[in-house]
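Let us work through a complete example step by step.
Step 1: write down the sequence.
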Amino acid sequence: MADVVPGAGGAASSGTTWTDVTVVPGIRPRMRTTLAEPPRRWAEEGQWGPFRARLEVNLTARGDGCRVEAHHTVSGLGIGGRAIGGLVAVLARPAIAADLRRAVAVATDAKGV
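Step 2: predict the structure and record it as tokens.
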């Protein structure tokens, strides 16, 4: 993450914006938190060039842990944008899964678990 601008309620609130530093050189989407309801829901939207993406994460308590469900969409502008956006969404699944695993690891370390 780079260029973080916290929302009115702080860095973990709706309205926070940042530049996502991806593993792909040159791809740096601008992101915005659109929903922050700790500890249940989180949503963010981003754009890079002709692409728009949305990720929503829902957490449900289960025993001593939680179930995490992530839903994402990618759309593209222009001729063929919808088809290309759908392809990008499929190709993005492994990266999103890796980001979620990394977030769990950071949260677990922060709690001393």
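Step 3: interpret the result. The chain has one domain: 2-111.
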